[in-house]
Amino acid sequence: MINGSIVALITPMNSDGAVDYASLEKLVEYHISQGTDAIVAVGTTGESATLPMKEHIEVVSQTVKFAAGRIPVIGGNGANATAEAIELTKAQSKVGVAAMLGVTPYYNKPSPAGLVAHYKAVAAATDIPQILYNVPGRTAVDMLPETVAQLVDVSNIIGVKEATGDVSRVARLRALCGDDFLLYSGDDATAREFLALGGNGVISVANNIVPREFKLMCDAALTGDTATAKEIESQIGGLFSALFCEANPIPVKWAAKQMGLIDNGFIRLPLTELSTPNHGLLLEAMKNARIEVKR
User: Fold this and answer.
1) Does residue 290 sit within a domain?
2) In the predicted structure, residue 295 carries a pLDDT above the cut 90
3) Does a cis peptide bond (omega within 30 degrees of 0) precede residue 112?
4) 161 is annotated as an active-site residue
5) Domain count, the chain
6) Cβ–Cβ < 8 Å for 241, 282
7) Is the pTM of this model over 0.90?
8) What is the pLDDT of residues 275-288, one digit of tens each?
């Protein structure tokens, strides 16, 4: 069971756009040293939409290699074509991931029946645990709790990442899916409340740059220490909006570069690096979160 503070890891790149594997290894070591509970490799924040399949699998594989069993790695296996998601799933089943995270097929706008059929087909391609991923703000389809409940009996579908920001869904999902089904927040701004209401963990963007603080906040929320969780949230909470001043992962890669966590903030088209007017906004949020800027 993977609980707690999970980083949606950025994929560092060189100035020519190639994946920077040296920086990727440093990031893995950084998160292990900071106490992060698990890593999601090549999810939305890892630029899954612009990594070709071969490269996607290689980044996941290398992340597993760098982690060397010290921290669980969850590989992103979502795609808008079910056949492609199955291909990603089969390939990642061979590299040692602890689980996989599959976003709802995007752009196609499948029906609830289509979502159920998609996830059943993907799960049937492997025996490795699968986590559903609902982020309607990006995919144009909302997988409702009632749809998720239709997948609970699939043996290797173990949970859902819910990124709507609607914390009322925690109670609905728990009632429909049972106590053993894992509920992960995908929204930093409501993560503390999500955990307090019965969630199991958070797959976080902000964790990339405040991993220790985010871990402490999650641990406090999970153990019912509301005062401590709120205190930490008050310190780092400004990041939760600032890191989305432009499309994720534009701001977080820029912030990671300012901290010296990665050598280059390159991001693949059609996304571009953080626009100059937003530099001050993000730097202010980083200052308030007591982040040391090195560049």
Assistant:
1) no
2) no
3) no
4) yes
5) 1
6) no
7) yes
8) 999 999 999 999 99
